[in-house]
Amino acid sequence: MPKPSDPSEPSESAETPPSVRQWLGLVAVALGVALIVVDITIVNVILAPIIEDLSIGSSEAQWIQESYAITFAALLLVTGRLSDLYGARRIFLLGLAVFGATSLLAALAPSGGLLILARFVQGVGGAMILPTSLALLNATFSGRARGQAFAVWGSTIGAAAAVGPLIGGWLADFSWRWAFAINIPLVALIVAGGLLYLDVSPRTRGRIDGVGAVLSAAGLGLLAYALIEGRTHGWLMTTKPLEVGGFSWSGGPSPVLVAFLASALALGAFWRRQAALDRSGGEPLMDVGLFSIRSFRNGNFVTLMVGLGEFGIIAVLPLWLQFALGYSAFQAGLALVALAAGSFAASGASFPMAATVSPLAQVRIGLALETAGLTMLALIASTDSAWWLIAIALFVYGIGVGFATAQVTNIVLVDVPPRSSGQGSGIQSAARELGSALGIALLTTLFFSTLASGMTDRLTRGGMAAGEAEQLGEVVTESAGSVIGVLAGDPRTATAAEAAREAMAVGVQVSGYVCAGLLLLALAATLFMSPKARTGARAEEGQNEGPGEERSEELSGRQEARGPAHSSVNGPAHGSTHGPAR
């Protein structure tokens, strides 16, 4: 009997190299993912001209920023299941169509209300694209090529998050509407590439658990809302009114606390329902049995921690660059290009490394480099940090993002039965998005708390009355630092501006160290991961691939035992299709 493969070593079985058509399909998938990630970060830069042009208030501005992310996170599990039922390619292309149509609506929006509506529906398109992109790659590529494909996919996410502010700063010089309009020709190009170069996807016979879909969407949506809005409205008691239309929540328990509680109830009910359907042979929206696969369970925890550590720092860096160092919006975006360059460098390096370095080892290398880059950034953060030192730190960090983000996805999905690829991709995407939302909530709260307290302490030590110092600290914090330039221009408040810059630099230092610590925790968690790569050798009769693989085969067998009405299909890379291809 062949010896089980060592998870720390790459597979050496003979493989058929991917065709040029498959690599071109990967390009289409990567560009689709880039679109949805850029739209998360680009709005932060173009928000000021939107407010001015549409004459909207702070409440509407906040919903323009956050509506996309909330809908996006809420629907990931549902779209993952739709991917299994109707074919990953079909849902991917439909998501692109929704994204393109709503980009046109956003570009032409004459009012804040219509722009918010467009952003909500745009999140639906994004939620259809992300998990299906994973399912498409997982089905199209195998063995060493799968690791290379995920390297491109992961590097695209890291680079797109970094260049979003740069693109937004550049387009804002013309019109904020171009930030949405530019998506339309890109969507047309990606759809054409998908139709030409992506194989039709097999689909599963089955149905959607409607109750489960509502519970998961409500639970994830409320959780994303609470994480995003906690600093604004208060984590426990209401500190700022929530206004929606004519309704105002102005006192008592915070709407964020209520959202957390409602989310916990909805997700708890969702889990119990899915477990009950699984036991009774029904059709769950999410197969909870997937969490019995060690690589999937632990890999999703690492995904959560990676998202928490990676995206939190990106939320605060532009503020420091613009308001403490005096960069323009475009210059701040340009500084983040070093991160994108590092991410793409990792993607290029991963191709030759795939022959000798396992995906798990690449994740560990990536997490170590991310930790090193963030530690360096924390060490150099000041009110006069040299741009080249910032670029070096972000480049090292970007290399780590390129390795870790890509290959952790490879590990999470490697032992998932192909018939459950859509569900597995949806769960992994949800873990990533919740991790990024949690990271942004944690890091922005920490950053602004450090800014407020640090500025107040500096001013009171300089002889300013405590009440006046606190008031100035609150003004700077509420403006996210944008008033620092105004304060610096007035001799009476120049001291306050300098104190704000110093406190902001300390906020970046603290944020960098905290993110580095979280990524070290993720690195420690990889010690409990032991994926078994799917290869052609697995098909050999009598091969034993260890507990993780036995469990994934058990899941496959259990799904087949449910009968033809519940049968699923393998992806094209595994040579089986038991249903209409779409």
Automatic annotation (TrEMBL):
Residues 535-582 are annotated as: Disordered. It holds the Pfam family MFS_1. The keyword Transcription does not apply. PANTHER family: MAJOR FACILITATOR SUPERFAMILY MULTIDRUG TRANSPORTER MFSC. This is MFS transporter. Signal peptide: none annotated. It comes from Streptomyces stephensoniae. Its main location: membrane. It is found in: Cell membrane. Keywords: Antibiotic resistance, Membrane, Transmembrane, Transmembrane helix, Transport.
